[in-house]
Specification:
Rossmann fold; 7 strands; globular; binds S-adenosylmethionine
């Protein structure tokens, strides 16, 4: 199967659970998963390869988990691009999300007794992270203030074993107009979703990288705004092998 036929099949499979979450949940998932390059790239680059226990903070309605489950299923069926690494085969997909409405949509999509997925209402600044092989925060770190960012990142580092990975995406506050455009869009989307306009806490890319390196991560930076006039950077943060 060519990549042009594979990606729509993956999108169909990943968005299917959200049909039971209602019109908004389904179309939000399809729009997000098809238009945001980070979902394709984390599979194409094999960033989560070998990861079993996942923790997604600020997980929304669980679009990332639906994507990973769909990838695992298609791969098991032999429907996988020949030049992509095998996707992860998760044993636990835990998520925490502040907004109860998103948690409710996730519950309708995955059901109450899903064998792998557990999405709970909780503030990433307060919940117990437990242990995980992969921790992700996609576009949510800038909602918490700088001191809390530091605390959360330190606790993520403590939750990961040698070889573990923390994947996040942040805006580069040093990038000028593209950074501000992204924040305006963020405000608009947050408002449309019925939330108060949040204060956002950005950092320059160099500050993010210095902070993560000081915690013991090996950090790769990858521009991740494809097709959008943003200054979004994916940070791939690895815990060195013991
Ligand atoms: C831009 S959305 C991204 C959602 C999801 N990561 C995705 O990629 O679809 C940011 C999410 O972070 C959540 N969030 C913000 N602050 C949070 C906190 N302190 N704890 C948990 N979730 C939080 C918001 O409610 C929102 O759902």
């Amino acid at each position: 199967m060519t990549i042009h036929r594979f990606l729509p099949a993956l999108l169909d499979e990943a968005s299917r659970p959200f049909r039971s979450g209602g019109h908004f949940a389904y179309h939000y998932a399809r729009g997000k998963l098809s238009s945001d390059c980070i979902f394709r790239e984390l599979l194409r680059r094999g960033l989560f390869a070998g990861g079993r226990r996942f923790l997604d903070l600020g997980c929304g309605q669980g679009s990332l988990f639906a994507w990973l489950l769909a990838a695992d299923k298609l791969h098991a069926q032999g429907n996988w691009p020949a030049d992509w690494p095998a996707p992860p085969h998760p044993t636990a997909l835990r998520g925490f999300e502040l907004m109860q409405k998103d948690v409710d949509r996730a519950a309708r999509a995955f059901g109450p007794d899903h064998p792998l997925v557990a999405i709970r209402q909780g503030d990433m600044c307060a919940v117990d992270f437990g242990q995980a092989d992969v921790v992700s925060i996609l576009d949510a770190l800038h909602y918490i203030d700088h001191q809390r960012q530091q605390d959360v990142l330190a606790r993520i580092r403590a939750a990961l074993p040698p070889g573990g990975i923390f994947l996040t995406r942040v805006g580069d506050a040093g990038a000028g107009l593209p950074y501000h455009i992204c924040n305006w869009v963020d405000h608009a989307v947050t408002f449309v979703r019925g939330h108060r306009l949040p204060q956002l806490y950005g950092r320059r890319l160099t500050e993010w990288v210095d902070l993560l390196r000081a915690l013991g991560f090996v950090v790769d930076t990858v521009p991740m705004s494809e097709g959008k006039p943003f200054a979004n950077i994916m940070l791939v943060c690895r815990v060195p092998d013991a």
